[in-house]
């Protein structure tokens, strides 16, 4: 970019040299390149480090110094002399060969034939090495692009799957919250309907009582008016009873009016407000659910698009692999051709050697020395060395890939073995705990837990056996004819036996992998007194018919309610729990 020359001297080669004022500037630029991880190579020519001397050029019309054909800024004189100072532009290859040998300079013709002062000849700007390197480089580039695209698509699919899982989790939470609110709203509606059902008869009764109250007030006013007059005679006994009855009715009416007022106040201040809040929250959840559904549809669409892109990439990968296979076949073909050519060359060399030997026998010593002074193509040896190095690198890469594949297969086998050992170890622990717990639950009982595979070997099942109430039992794989032993398959177990076996299995798993919280309901329903005591020795039993003393040390209380043929569990206060226990103890 810093020089110009006549179009006749254009040889279509490029020099990627960067001119810098000093080596410090070059170092800073390289550090910035490395910091940004920029690809490629950069060659710098620091002006303060270049030592250029003036040269004597041949005075001939067949050659022109390269420096005389360039136009550049004199500021960069050192850099241009360093690069082009030892180069001559010649008219022919013969002149280039002569001048390169005589003046130890590099020569180039207008046809881009290059002659090095060391004796190497290069024709045209077409490099045959590139052709030999194209299949290998193309395969490496295709593999790199394939790995990058596959990794990018896998990352995108993983991110979309995570987003979809998060959306599904959020949708499940919204659905659970909506179901709870709907249940609560339904309960409030039922309470409101019950309140309205009881409110209307009370209102009608109130209206009747108010009418009676007005009549009584009229009677009272008339009686008060009579109080101001002189009584001609005393009230009779019947009138006194009637007056007392009227006073009682007046008190009852006043109490009923207070009750109705409190019911209306509670209905207006609490239940209606709560119903409005629940309806408002339900509407918000519906709106949120609609947004979540739209978002889920968008994610599903994105997943479908990604899967389609993945299929397209798979097709592209298959085409690329097919191309690679064709290139490999072509490479093998060319290798075979190369081998055949090498064999032919060796045969020709042997023949030429014999012919040369015969010719040399007829030549004099002076003629032989003249033959030795002729030029040789040193590039052929360099190309042979380069090809040999590339072959060794490819062989090493193949060996490394083979070792990597072998190590991956060994790792997969080790992981599979560890998984199988972990499953076997866990099952042995559960089986051992099952036998110990069963002996505690059933006095004198014996049980084992075994894994049995079916005929196809694709399914395994755990068989547990327990004793009946007051009887001894065992769990075994083998079929035992004794009537005191149960398998749970050939004959049916009773409810108590099933409960004992299930509890033993639960406690065995709990010992193997303890959990912070367990909730049992009606575990002793099918057990007799003896086995209830055995179960209570293993767990802290809270029976359904609890005593009030058990509530004193409790921190939290749960009440199970039965509404619309469905059980619901809610947190209740200590007073409600105590009232329930005392009422159940009294009327149970």
TrEMBL record:
GO molecular function: ATP binding
Domain RecF/RecN/SMC N-terminal: 296-566
Coiled coil: 143-170, 268-337
GO cellular component: chromosome; nuclear lumen
An annotated GO BP: meiotic cell cycle
The keyword Iron-sulfur is assigned to this record: no
Primary residence: nucleus
Locations listed in the record: Chromosome
Entry keyword set: Cell cycle, Chromosome, Coiled coil
Protein name per Swiss-Prot or TrEMBL: Structural maintenance of chromosomes protein 3
UniProt key word Nucleotidyltransferase: no
